[in-house]
Design brief:
The complex is a heterodimer of chains A (277) and B (250).
Chain A lengths: L3 H40 L3 H21 L3 H21 L5 H23 L6 H6 L7 H30 L1 H6 L4 H23 L4 H14 L4 H26 L3 H23 L1
Helix pairs in contact in A: 1-6, 1-8, 1-9, 1-10, 2-3, 2-4, 2-8, 3-8, 6-8, 9-10, 9-11, 10-11
Chain B lengths: L7 E12 L2 E12 L3 E5 L6 H9 L6 E6 L5 E4 L13 H6 L9 H10 L15 H14 L4 E5 L7 H18 L2 E6 L4 E3 L4 E6 L1 E6 L8 H7 L3 H4 E3 L15
Parallel strand pairs in B: 3-7, 3-9, 5-6, 6-7
Antiparallel strand pairs in B: 1-2, 1-4, 8-11, 9-10
Classes of the chains: A mainly alpha (277), B alpha/beta (250).
Chain lengths: 277, 250
């Protein structure tokens, strides 16, 4: 016979699985994509671009709310548009790119916030938007995220070699016949989609962290780029599981919990490296 | 001029390059023949790297034309490989990235690496290599393509004198073994490779060009580099004729 407290505990785990499996599945898929993409962001030193993309997403959401069309669609389009802008700006080396990015990204964020507040739409959950809300992810959204992530993984797998070559040395890649400009554009577009998707889970403020921290941890224990990408995916997935459970049991915000888990794993990876050397 | 009966691989026709209102290159014309070793020298800021980048297609000339023979395979060794410390990359993986379908062909990669004398670094991280070793790995990767033309942009940067002598010798041998033309950029005004057929001195425009003189038998230099210096290095005397007249030696 079970004592009531045990019954409650069991019940809560079943309940948790039922409640969270779409979110969990979506989170794990995002982590899979975030591994290789985050590695590219780390290698190319584009962390700031990730933030800028995330900020632009809020403007996308605001436009969706105002125009009464799908927020998912406007976010995706806004991120993609912003990504193309960034590629073009990056090529014009005369401009100071980080200053310009700061102006653009934060203007987009500010405009988004103002538009949302002016629109008077009460249903828009800004908190969920900034910090992510796994519980808001239903089966349909989860399925959409899984499909998008599978496409991203497919493209990354297919284009891995040229993308990596362009990242290791642009000049050599160009001379060897790779299309450098196109590859940069593809990479930026992939990032835009990943940011638009990942935002749903960890929020605008922390999506860059989910991309970068697992990759940085994986670097400590990898010898090749492929290893780093795979380890980053695995570390990201572990972070999602830990963060999600913690968030459920401690009633902590989901996005920050996941990022915190990733940070702890990073410390662990650092210690591992120390032990090895 | 040397190799007049040989085919022209690259013809730079009156190239000018202007960036942000600054003249980088002015009316530069060059012919690079098959099997020719050309050394491009000039002071800092003379536009050597810009000229090479224009030749490779990395820069577009403001006026003039770059004409290459069709299906010209170029192997390029940049000044240095600036690898981000966050990029884990072994020498092996770096070479594997080069040829499109060579995952299986480990033997070829190892053979190329041993030709530049670095077989022992097969599984070593590129970040752990010295500057000279990194240059040689870049050279190995460029050679993997079996290039018709090998372009080296200041390969001696950060390499000590002994390493320089070795590297020069290695490059000198490449023409024999691979039968490709070589374009070498050097910021040293006095020192060029012995195997050089043509020296071009650049200072925004072509100051002068011609074949280098024989090695100067300077005992101090022989002492510094050992007897191998005789095979690897030579002096080139030139004076800057600012009107840009081309001196040729026969």
């Amino acid at each position: 016979m079970l004592v009531p407290s045990e019954l409650k505990k069991r019940g809560s785990i079943v309940f948790m699985v039922e409640l969270l499996w779409p979110a969990c599945l979506a989170g794990l898929m995002i982590a899979v994509v975030a591994g290789p993409l985050g590695s590219f962001i780390v290698w190319r030193r584009m962390a700031y671009f990730g933030d800028a993309l995330a900020h632009s997403a809020l403007l996308g959401a605001a436009l969706g709310v105002l125009l009464h069309i799908s927020i998912n669609l406007t976010i995706l389009l806004m991120c993609l548009g912003f990504a193309v802008c960034l590629v073009v700006l990056e090529q014009k080396k005369r401009l100071s790119i980080d200053t310009l990015l700061g102006i653009l990204a934060h203007s987009a964020l500010a405009l988004g916030l103002v538009l949302i507040s002016l629109s008077g739409v009460q249903s828009f959950n800004l908190h969920a938007f900034l910090f992510g809300d796994l519980l808001a992810i239903d089966k349909k959204t989860a399925l959409m995220i899984v499909v998008y992530c599978l496409i991203l993984v497919g493209i990354l797998n297919r284009m891995w070699r040229p993308l990596l070559n362009v990242t290791v040395c642009e000049e050599i890649a160009f001379v060897e016949g790779y299309r450098v400009g196109l590859m940069k554009l593809i990479l930026m577009a992939l990032m835009a989609v990943a940011v638009a998707l990942g935002m749903k889970i960890v929020g605008v403020l922390l999506i860059t962290a989910l991309l970068i921290i697992p990759a940085a941890s994986a670097r400590q224990i990898s010898q090749t780029p492929e290893q780093m990408a795979c380890f980053a995916s695995m570390i990201g997935m572990t972070s999602v599981m830990i963060g999600l459970s913690f968030s459920y049991f401690a009633d902590a915000p989901t996005g920050p919990s996941i990022v915190l888990a990733a940070s702890l794993l990073f410390l662990l990876a650092l210690l591992c490296k120390r032990q090895m050397s | 001029m040397v190799n007049s009966q040989k085919s022209v691989l690259v013809f730079l026709d009156a190239i000018s390059l202007i960036k942000n209102g600054r003249i980088i290159l002015q009316d530069v014309s060059l012919r690079l023949h098959s099997d020719e070793i050309m050394t491009l020298i000039g002071p800092n800021g003379a536009g050597k790297t810009s000229l090479v980048r224009t030749l490779l297609g990395l820069e577009f000339p403001s006026s003039g034309q770059v004409k290459k023979t069709s299906k010209l395979t170029i192997g390029y060794v940049p000044q240095q490989l600036r690898l981000d410390p966050m990029m884990p990359l072994t020498v092996r993986r770096f070479l594997e990235l080069s040829v499109s379908s060579c995952y299986a062909n480990e033997q070829l990669l190892k053979k190329q690496l041993s030709e530049v004398g670095l077989l022992s670094k097969w599984e070593v991280a590129v970040l752990d290599l010295s500057d000279g070793e990194r240059q040689r790995v870049l050279l190995a990767r460029a050679l993997l393509r079996n290039p018709d033309l090998l372009v080296l942009d200041e390969p001696m940067q950060g390499v000590d004198l002994k390493g320089q002598a070795e590297l020069y010798q290695l490059i000198g041998n490449i023409r024999e073994t691979k039968g490709c033309a070589i374009l070498l950029v050097s910021h040293d005004l006095h020192f060029v490779m012995a195997a050089t057929d043509t020296v071009v001195c650049l200072n925004q425009h072509v100051c002068c060009s011609g074949c280098p003189e024989a090695i100067q038998q300077d005992p101090a230099y022989l002492e510094l580099f050992g007897p191998q210096a005789l095979q690897g290095l030579a002096w080139y005397h030139h004076d800057h004729s600012l009107e840009g007249s081309v001196k040729e030696k026969t």
